[in-house]
Amino acid sequence: MYWLFHAQITQNSIGDFLKPQKIQEIAQLTQKDAARRAKVTGNPNSRHRIFFSSSSLVLFLCALTKFNSNHTRKNPHTKRSLGRSRNPNSMWAATCLASCCASCACEACKTAVSGISRRSARIAYCGLFAFSLLVAWILREVAAPLMESIPWINHFKQTPSREWFETDAVLRVSLGNFLFFTILAILMVGVKTHKDPRDNMHHGGWMFKIICWCLLVILMFFLPNEIVSFYETISKFGSGMFLLVQVVLLLDFVHGWNDKWVGFDEQFWYVALFVVSLVCYVASFAFSGVLFHFFTPSGQDCGLNVFFITITLILAFVFAIVALHPAVNGSILPASIISLYCTYLCYSALASEPRDYECNGLHRHSKAVSTGTLTLGLFTTVLSVVYSAVRAGSSAAVLSPPSSPRAGKPLLPLDGKDEEEKEKAKPVTYSYAFFHLIFSLASMYSAMLLTGWSTSVGESGKLVDVGWPSVWVRIVTSWATALLYLWSLVAPIMFPEREF
């Protein structure tokens, strides 16, 4: 609106600008601008606030018009154009006009920023989590010499290896991150509507939150080693829970994808479903062949790797047979996607084997794999957390929608106050507590990812997610995914009276 008034003033004198026709035109434009900003911000109340400021401006202009006309009649020799007048009253009027325009612009910007902040809260939390991963990675690389000189950390008779201090730095950052999101999860328990004061706490106060996060991370470096060791132990269980949440969400995603395409009930979508399923199965079998090539080199006894890859192939065939069985009434699309995902988990498990293991075909490229694995691991973790939080939160609807299009609609239009109360009474779109809980579990998982499940020694300490614990976690996750998928197929047959 400021640019609108500025253009009007520069093109015309203030006297012409204050004509009743101009005032009416400005009033209409302010109403349209207020409605447009309300649509952009997604907050209908912003329209009332902006229009209130604009209406105040119009009333001020009307009063100023009357003052200008009276002043002209009392002083006939005064020029009608206030823009060319040196009269102090005219200058005062112009100053007030500029101040009022600035006030309207500030109110509009404040409302717009408020709407943007509300929509981007989840993105901000994801950005903070990604930043915590970056801090943990940097400290893992550079903080070891400093931590060796801290007496309450290095109080051993014999100084531990450098890898121990690197692991300890990552765990302390992860512990601060875990406490930050856990506290938020506890505070957000029971938030149902936007009327709850904690809704503003979830979306706003970012300067205070960042300060609290920094203080928590710094304070973790003053804790004794026993507390950090205890957190390391529970992080392994928390990481497993995070991986389990990912599996459940993946199953929900593939079943939803299949139901959506089948629901179209058109030949095109059936063909698309078949093509995608075929591509996934071909990719899964081809990927298994690559695994046999790299992780079962000739001349080596690699029975464990052969066992892992063979079990993965058998599971892929079992998925297809069970899904296509008439009694199950399943679909080939979820079976193919789960097969490909299990093959990927098998690869990630084999790639996590120690670099000096003779059956790991990647050990010759350990230096190159270190950077690639690090980047891929961090990127995958951030994406997993974003999807897990958004998907899980949006699926937990607090209140179901009305049964008919007119249900819940008032017979008479509401006034501004009633509409504002109705807006605040709307249910939240996702579970805030579960949203932060996912980040708490992801903080544990990221610590295990960066430390190789806290067992990295020697060369593996410079890699990400390398070591036998990581291998077994990935393999067990693959088997758990297979069992959960098969259970989702046979459970409705075994327990027909229950809903799944």
From TrEMBL:
<feature type="transmembrane region" description="Helical">
    <location>
        <begin position="210"/>
        <end position="231"/>
    </location>
</feature>
<comment type="similarity">
    <text>Belongs to the TDE1 family.</text>
</comment>
<keyword id="KW-1133">Transmembrane helix</keyword>
<keyword id="KW-0472">Membrane</keyword>
<keyword id="KW-0812">Transmembrane</keyword>
<protein>
    <recommendedName>
        <fullName>Serine incorporator</fullName>
    </recommendedName>
</protein>
<dbReference type="InterPro" id="IPR005016">
    <property type="entry name" value="TDE1/TMS"/>
</dbReference>
<dbReference type="Pfam" id="PF03348">
    <property type="entry name" value="Serinc"/>
</dbReference>
<feature type="transmembrane region" description="Helical">
    <location>
        <begin position="169"/>
        <end position="189"/>
    </location>
</feature>
<feature type="region of interest" description="Disordered">
    <location>
        <begin position="400"/>
        <end position="422"/>
    </location>
</feature>
<feature type="transmembrane region" description="Helical">
    <location>
        <begin position="121"/>
        <end position="139"/>
    </location>
</feature>
<feature type="transmembrane region" description="Helical">
    <location>
        <begin position="269"/>
        <end position="294"/>
    </location>
</feature>
<feature type="transmembrane region" description="Helical">
    <location>
        <begin position="432"/>
        <end position="451"/>
    </location>
</feature>
<feature type="transmembrane region" description="Helical">
    <location>
        <begin position="471"/>
        <end position="495"/>
    </location>
</feature>
<feature type="transmembrane region" description="Helical">
    <location>
        <begin position="331"/>
        <end position="350"/>
    </location>
</feature>
<feature type="transmembrane region" description="Helical">
    <location>
        <begin position="306"/>
        <end position="324"/>
    </location>
</feature>
<feature type="transmembrane region" description="Helical">
    <location>
        <begin position="370"/>
        <end position="390"/>
    </location>
</feature>
<dbReference type="GO" id="GO:0016020">
    <property type="term" value="C:membrane"/>
</dbReference>
<feature type="transmembrane region" description="Helical">
    <location>
        <begin position="237"/>
        <end position="257"/>
    </location>
</feature>
